[in-house]
Every structure is written in C-alpha cells, then in structure tokens.
Specification:
Layout: E1 7-14, H1 20-33, E2 39-46, E3 52-54, E4 75-79, E5 87-90, E6 101-104, E7 107-110, H2 121-129, H3 138-145, H4 147-156, E8 164-168, H5 169-174, H6 176-186, E9 191-195, E10 205-207, H7 210-223, E11 226-231, E12 237-246, E13 249-258, H8 267-271, E14 283-284, H9 291-307, E15 312-321, E16 326-333, H10 351-370, H11 380-387
Helix pairs in contact: 1-10
The structure holds adenosine-5'-diphosphate and magnesium ion.
Adenosine-5'-diphosphate is lined by residues 162, 192, 194, 198-201, 204, 230-233, 238, 260, 264-265, 317, 319, 330-331.
C-alpha cells in the first residue's frame, strides 16, 4: 500500500511590517511544530523591504540577522498568482546559467503579523493563486486588522467597544486644534491613541492631558495614515480568548489574563520577557474570573469572530472590570502571536495538533469556496465580434443573450 503523500505546506513570514521580528519567532514555532511524517515544510521569508526568499537555511532561527538572505542555499522566489503554478516560482529571473522551477504548495500558512500579511493583502494573493491557506480570508483579515473598521462593524452588532474618535493624518497636520477639540468634546481625558493598523503596541500611547495627546498623535501619525483615539479604561484587567473553527462550528479556548506592570501592555512586556515571543509574556491561565463572566466573554469572542466571517483562528482581547461586570472587546488578532497555542494546550490541543487542525480547517474552507462558481458564459464576446464594441452596450436587439451555464 503506497505511503500517503505528504502535504507540502508553505509558511510565509517576516514581511514589510513593524511586527517583522515577532513574525519570525511565530513562524519558527509553527514550522517546528509540523509533524514531518505528514508534512514537508517550505519556509518563505519576506525581507523587511519586501523581497521574497526560500531555502533550508531559513528553517534555522540561529541564521537570522540582516545578512541571512546572502547565505548560500537561499534563493529568490515569488508566489505565483497564476493557478497553473499552484505555488512558488524559484529563481524567477533565471538567466542562461540557472533554471527557474516550480515548487508546488498544497497549503499555505500565512505567519505575518500586521501590515502586508495579516491585513488581507497576502490573503488576496492566495485567493488569486487559488491555493488553500490557513486563517481568516481577505475580508475578515482586512476588517480585523483595522481598529477603526473593527469598532464600526462590531458596534453595529451590539458588541461592546470602547468609545473612540478617528481621523486622518492629513486632518491632524492641517487642523490640529479641531482634532484636539473633537477629542476633548467626545472623550475627555485620559485617552489611548492608536495607529489604526499596527499591532504589538507599536505607536500606541496613553495621554492624560492635551500636551501629551499632541505628542502621542504625532507618534501614531508616524506609523499610520489613519488614527484612533479612545477613552482610556481604568481599573480594568486585560482578558484574552482564542477562537478556532469555520462557519458555525467555532469554539473558544480558556481565558488568559496577561500581566502588565506598565501603563499598558507594551512591546517589551509582550515579547522581550523571555525568548519565545508572545509565549514568554507573563499571564494567568485560566483567568481568575467567575464561570458566568468567563462564559460571557467566550460567547462574545465567538460572536465577534462570526460577525467578521472569521475562519481558522484568532485571539480576541478584552478590557474587563469584573467587579462592575463591565466587558469591552478591544481588538481581534487574526494571526495571534505564537498562534496563542498556550490557550489551547490546557484543552489538550498541542502546538503540533493545533497547526494540523488549522491546515484541516484551511482545506475545509477551500472546499466550501470551491462550491461557488466563478464561471458565467454568455454570447457577449460573439456579439462584440459581430457588431464591434460600440454595438454591444445598450444595444436594443430582439436576440436574447443565450446563457450557456458552464458549470
Ligand atoms: N481603551 C483602552 N484603555 C486602556 N488600555 C488600553 C486601551 N486600549 C489599549 N490599551 C492597552 O494598550 C495595549 C495595546 O493596545 P491594542 O489595542 O491591543 O493594540 P495592539 O494591536 O498594538 O496590541 C492593550 O494591550 C492595553 O494594555
Ligand atoms: Mg493588542
């Protein structure tokens, strides 16, 4: 009996994102977790300036410094949007002495945090290439990665969010006083200032007064064209919940309470406490909340994931005041650091099992997508050939377009 063909999974990481380094760590946790009996792992590294590479040296975290791409065994690649390739083109600009080849990818595992990877852009390329991929699809990724749009969409579905106002960098540069006045009127102080689409607390600041507000907005405007200012919640704890699944079959993990000794959970607290990325942050698992409050937060997390048509996995973060029974959904991370695997381990799902389940969910989502037809045949081209292009649009003719359903 022939051995079952292994699945070739391409893990895409790094990227033009302020969270580049976090992605390198998350990706290595993912690549290391794949069962090599079932999977062949192909690393696809995108450099800080956006160039694509592959090659075995990328599998070793020790190789990572600014010179990594000049290591021997590392080759330039592109992920072809053409369905006929179903994967990577190796050495795309091959000359006379080298040959470009195709590396088929059965499934792709996006492992980029933030811009150009968690925001729907990479997902869009994978939709074009028609390759099954892990995690949220283009729309859900784009919505979740944008804090302003997330608030709009979830408010629409009565999911409690902190009050906020948003504006563009141009508004701030042209009419700073008007912006300050809007914040003062709508929110008062203290407030949190956030770039709309960054993550890992990069570019985020707390302002207790107008002077600090000005400088925190300047910082946020350095990282993003769109800026969100929110009421600063005080006397709360942070509670995170991971969700996993597709469609109506979504389940929630146990809850965690990350510990912050600073004004807010900083990049340093998230990643630089230990040497394993998000895994090394200080946290209490399970979060010390009542069963009722725990269940309420898990339900809110599943509801929010459904509202954005989420698929695969996410970590959904909350700001909670247990004594007042107050819960705010803060943000949705569709590619959580370290895949939030430490929230699934307590439910008996190891990292190896987690990545395997995510690949299965990717295949399931792909099969569901394939049930839609993207093929619609008509006589339009024939008509244009016969009548010329001018003759088609708005032409009042008796002949009805014969529809030949190709499916
Ligand atoms: N409205 C708020 N009130 C109080 N703390 C907040 C608020 N918004 C964010 N924070 C703090 O800032 C941290 C980072 O904010 P967050 O919205 O999660 O951005 P990021 O996507 O960068 O993680 C949160 O983990 C929390 O500690
Ligand atoms: Mg956060």
């Amino acid at each position: 009996m022939s051995a079952k063909r292994k699945t070739t999974v391409g893990v895409i990481f790094g990227g033009r994102s302020v969270e580049h380094d976090v992605s390198v760590v998350t990706a290595h946790q993912i690549m290391r977790a794949f069962d090599r009996e079932l999977y062949d792992v192909v690393p696809v590294y995108i450099s800080r300036d956006g160039r694509w590479f592959s090659g075995d040296p990328l599998l070793d975290l020790k190789n990572y410094d600014d010179e990594i791409i000049s290591l021997s065994g590392i080759i330039p690649v592109i992920l072809s949007p053409g369905v006929q390739h179903h994967g990577l083109i190796l050495n795309p600009l091959a000359g006379r002495f080298s040959k470009s080849e195709i590396q088929r990818l059965d499934v792709v595992f996006p492992a980029i945090h933030g811009t150009h990877g968690e925001d729907g852009t990479l997902q869009g390329l994978l939709e074009l290439a028609d390759i099954p991929y892990v995690g949220c699809k283009t729309l859900a990724s784009a919505v979740a990665n944008d804090k302003i749009i997330t608030k709009m969409v979830l408010n629409e579905h009565d999911i409690p969010m902190v009050d906020g106002v948003s504006f563009n960098r141009a508004d701030w540069l042209e009419q700073p006083e008007a912006v300050i006045e809007r914040v003062r009127q709508a929110l008062g102080f203290p407030v949190f200032v956030k770039p709309a689409t960054t993550g890992s607390s990069i570019g985020i600041g707390r302002a207790n007064d107008e002077t600090v507000l000005r400088s925190t907005i300047d910082i946020a405007a350095h990282f993003d064209r769109r800026i969100l200012v929110e009421k600063a919640i005080t006397g709360h704890v942070e509670i995170n919940c991971s969700v996993m699944g597709n469609g109506d079959d979504i389940r929630a993990s146990v809850l965690e309470q990350p510990i912050s000794w600073d004004e807010f959970l900083t990049y340093e607290e998230k990643y630089l406490r230990g040497n394993e990325g998000m895994k090394s942050a200080e946290r209490i698992i399970p979060a010390p909340l009542s069963p009722a409050l725990t269940a309420r937060i898990q339900k809110l997390a599943i509801d929010a994931f459904r509202v954005i048509d989420g698929q695969g996995i996410a970590r959904i973060d909350f700001l909670v005041k247990p004594d007042e029974d107050v819960v705010y959904l803060n943000e949705i991370n569709t590619l959580p650091g370290s895949l939030a695997f430490y929230l699934w381990e307590p439910s008996g799902v190891s990292m190896s099992e987690l990545v395997h389940q995510l690949v299965e969910l990717a295949r399931e989502a792909y099969a569901e997508k394939r049930r839609s037809s993207y093929d619609y045949r008509t006589d339009l081209i024939n008509l244009a050939q016969m009548r010329g292009l001018k003759g088609v649009k708005g032409a009042k003719s008796s002949s009805t377009a014969a529809v030949r359903d190709s499916t």
